[in-house]
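For the sake of clarity, the format in which proteins appear in this thesis is described at this point. The record quoted next illustrates the convention:

___
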Amino acid sequence: MSTETVAILERKARIFNVQKYSIYDGPGIRTLIFFKGCPLRCKWCSNPEGLERNYQVMFKEDLCVDCGNCIPVCPVHLHYFQDDEDGKNGQKAQHKVKRTINCVGCRKCESVCPKQALSIVGSDKTISDALEIIQQDALFYLSSGGGVTLGGGEVTAQPEFAANLLMECKRLGIHTAIETSGYTKLDSLLMIAQFTDLFLYDIKQIDSERHYELTGVRNERILDNLTELIRRGFTVKVRMPLIKGLNDSKETIGKTLEFLQSFKDYKNFQGIDLLPYHKLGINKYKQLDMTYAITEDLSFKEEELDKIQEFIKGYDLQVEVIRH
């Protein structure tokens, strides 16, 4: 094995989750690898633990018995007891986590917690580590036409690792896909694209000002990168998150479809997946001491999704609703 190959296999990225046996994120049965860190701040994000590149402590307060085991083992003093004004209210001191200090990822608190109330989010893995996990399910990929999908967070925020991992997967004959917001430098996207069989590419809101309000970034770069990928022949399926009242109006969807119609004759453009709003990530916000921006139920009834699907078909575009 050459020195260059060894260097590639030992390259590291920060990952926050690996999910096996997925059937929603590309063809067949897939292994999903979630990269930590994202430049967007979508109000409906279901993976808040993927937003920051730093290690983070997830704290399930309802499981905590305030034993204090975590306090002496933490090297940066993240854990502490919050006194109840010297017991004036008759309550014992409660365990809290200081969010102003960065976790160093040692996992000592996690290991001494008797109730699994603490978990550390983030793990630095080499390409060799990731390949070992991916290859465990090679038979499932072979039988189902599946493979590996890289997501996040935002995979393109760690482009060298992503490109090298996908290159190794291709060398092993494994189908590759990435889920991306497209908010990255074109050079980074094209570095990854040469080893990517399928892009699952988000369009969250077609109006740039409204996109900024909902995600914290404008969308010109996103739309330009999407155009480049399709025109250069890379296989792309557009994904449209649907959040009631935020991006589901006929006007908004119609403008998105008008933009996409220019690609409908490209064989490498595989149509649209609709991703209806869900609440699956809400509990994680509490565990991270983060505020979930959406207070009302913005999910859809089946008949509402059917109407949107039919509206899109009227533009002669292939569309599918992804129901988790």
Observations:
- The longest strand covers residues 12-22.
- The mean pLDDT is 94.
- The radius of gyration is 22 Å.
- Residues 54 and 102 are 7 Å apart (CA to CA).
